[in-house]
Design brief:
Elements: E1 4-6, E2 9-11, H1 13-22, H2 28-40, H3 45-55, H4 59-68, E3 80-85, H5 88-92, H6 95-106, E4 112-113, E5 119-124, E6 135-138, E7 141-144, H7 151-161
Parallel strand pairs: 3-5
Antiparallel strand pairs: 1-2, 3-6, 4-5, 6-7
C-alpha cells in the first residue's frame, strides 16, 4: 500500500482517493476533515496543512473550520474516552459531581487528556440512557446509576484493559 507523507502526517491511499473525489465539490472541507479525523482520531496540524495543499485552500480557512465546530479535535485523544452525559436526566441526578470527581482523579478538565495519554474526559449531551442516569461511557461501555465513588473502579478496569475508546 503506497502512502503520501508531509512531515508526520501520512495519508492512506483510501484517504487520498476520498480527497480527490471531494476536492472540487461543495462542502468539501468539512467532509474531508471528517475523513481525516476518522483516520487519525483527531486533526493533526500536518494533516490540515497537507489537506490545504491537496485541495488548494488556504490553511487559515481549514483551521477556521476546525476551530469553529466542536466536533473536530485538534489534539490527540486519550486511548480511552470518558464521556459524562450531561443531558437533563443525568444532570439532575448528579452528572456534574461525576465531572468534578473525574477532574480530581485524573487531574484534567473537560476536553483534556491525561499526561500519560490514557484518558480524555468529555461532557456530552444525552446518550439515550435516561433510565440509567447518571451515565458515564468509557469507549463503548455504558455505566449507569453511577456515583462519584464508583469512578475509580471503572477507570482502573479500563486502564489495565487498555480499552480503545477514542
Amino acid at each position: 500500500m503506497s502512502t503520501q507523507t508531509v512531515e508526520t502526517a501520512t495519508f492512506s491511499d483510501e484517504l487520498l482517493k476520498f480527497i480527490e473525489t471531494w476536492k472540487d465539490k461543495r462542502g468539501n472541507i468539512i467532509m474531508i476533515m471528517h475523513r481525516i479525523q476518522q483516520e487519525f482520531g483527531f486533526l493533526p496540524w500536518d494533516a490540515m496543512a497537507h489537506m490545504a495543499k491537496l485541495i488548494d485552500v488556504p490553511l487559515a480557512k481549514i483551521y477556521g473550520v476546525a476551530t469553529f465546530y466542536h466536533y473536530f479535535k485538534l489534539e490527540k485523544p486519550g486511548r480511552n474516552k470518558v464521556a459524562v452525559c450531561m443531558g437533563t436526566a443525568c444532570y439532575l441526578k448528579g452528572a456534574r459531581d461525576l465531572i468534578d470527581e473525574l477532574s480530581n482523579l485524573l487531574d484534567v478538565g473537560v476536553d483534556e487528556t491525561t499526561e500519560d495519554g490514557e484518558f480524555t474526559v468529555e461532557s456530552v449531551r444525552c446518550v439515550g440512557c435516561c433510565g440509567l442516569a447518571p451515565v458515564v461511557m468509557v469507549g463503548d461501555d455504558v455505566y449507569g446509576k453511577i456515583g462519584p465513588d464508583g469512578l475509580p473502579e471503572i477507570l482502573a478496569k479500563h486502564r489495565s484493559a487498555g480499552t480503545e475508546g477514542a
